[in-house]
Amino acid sequence: MTPPLLPLDDDRYWADPYPVLAELREHHRTAVTPDGALAVLRWADAEEVKKRPEFVNEGLEYIEARGFVPGDPLYEWRRHSVGALNGDDHRRLRGLVNRALTPRAVEKVRPVVRGHVRDLLARHAEAGGFDVREHIRIVPFLSIAAFLDISPTEAAEVGRRMQGGGADAFGPHVTPEIRAAANATFAAAMAFVSDLVADRRATPRDDLLSRLIAVEEDGDRLSNDELIVLFTNIFAGAIDTTSSVMTSMFLEFARRPDQLELLRSAPDELARGATEEVLRFRPGFYAAGSRTIADTEVAGVRLAEGETVSIVIGGPNRDPRRFADPDRFDITRDPTLWSFTFSMGPHFCLGQALARAELQETAIAIATHTRDLELVGEPQWTSRTMVNHVDRCEIAYRFVE
Ligand code: HEM
């Protein structure tokens, strides 16, 4: 029997996908996307897809299916992208990035985030509030600058160039306009990073990029193209996702004064639970994809080699088999019971420790510096983009030091 359709073409689905996902997950186990991929919705099935060797991440075929061709800047970027490689190529590149993402580098970011969220709240206090979606993006930027040891000016420049809608090119609905914007975005970002690499080659500093260049030259390990892509990879993965979940954090606490009061009672102890709960509730990425490299079966559905599978993250994140009363937002859940938000298996998010630290600091800043936090109007959710987020999230509050 063919699984029912997952209504990705319907705007109403994106505004609140959870009732639809619950119905499909509980009564049909799986669904099928409008472009024919099997949508996996239960925790155990999602885990199998990410952990079994018959499933790998989609490579160039993922963007070929969205109309990109060799020579397009986004296509060339994807060739070396860590998320698009599998097997030994993936292990090698991932090992190098992982070496740079040290716990010390993550800890360095905490005071930067706490300070910037506090400043943002202080700056807009007189006006009584602000649109979180519009203003929060600077926070992951500045933290990634601190993390990568690049100057805020350099970070702002990469960010400015990457603002043109690159993430939409990975969504389920790619139009010629989205393709053109994404190609322009990636061309501009890679040109800038290429200059940055040339600069650090000429004048090495004590920073991540110089260290990666040194690794390349000593052991002939990273090509120039790989270096450039790696750096833009980190930016592409870090900004939209983290700022989207930060916005959701403001949103969920503005809607739930009781949970915010609880967090306020012990911010340092509860920041972790608050972060995990927002990540579970509003996962940022709407889906993680895979492709079969052999005939196989998952969730009771037979698949031939070369078929695509989409894990719709809201499915496993609200699976009652893993999370009791899954539609309840509760910051006192066990924070070690992770959700599917950072995926799992060989492609498990490389920046998860950094994102978690940033979100924990944001939770502490919200608890410490706001009173009477509330939403102004109802937020609007974007449709059909990979990073599912609210378009506007106006808040009002009183600032306290
Ligand atoms: C809340 C914020 C974030 C979310 C929700 C998120 C989510 C994800 C997801 C779902 C994947 C895909 C895993 C797969 O293919 O199965 C991923 C991969 C990745 N993420 Fe994140 N991410 C976040 C923040 C970050 C940050 C801050 C960085 C950079 C420091 C980052 C860098 C990466 C990289 C490089 C990959 C590719 C890993 C690989 O394929 O081996 N992410 N992320």
Q: Give, in order, the helices and strands.
A: HHEEHEHHHHEHHHHHHHHEEEEHHEEEE
User: Any idea how many domains?
Assistant: 1
pLDDT averaged over residues:
89
Taking all Cα atoms into account, the compactness measure Rg is 21 Å
Ligand inventory: protoporphyrin IX containing FE
Low-confidence stretches: none
Report on this structure.
The protein is of the alpha+beta class and 401 residues long. The chain has one domain: Cytochrome P450 (Cytochrome p450, Orthogonal Bundle). It is built from 17 helices and twelve strands. It has helices at 11-15, 18-27, 43-51, 60-64, 73-79, 87-100, 103-123, 132-135, 138-148, 152-161, 176-202, 208-219, 224-255, 257-265, 267-281, 314-317, 352-369, and strands spanning 30-32, 38-40, 55-56, 129-131, 287-292, 296-298, 301-303, 308-312, 370-375, 380-381, 390-392, 394-399. The strands form four sheets. Strands 1-2-8-5-3 form a five-stranded mixed beta sheet. It has a three-stranded antiparallel beta sheet with strand order 4-12-9. A hairpin with a 5-residue loop joins strand 1 and strand 2 (38-40). The protein is globular and about 60 Å long. The termini are far apart. The model has no long low-confidence stretch (mean pLDDT 89). The structure holds protoporphyrin IX containing FE. The site of protoporphyrin IX containing FE has 24 residues, from helix 13 and helix 17.
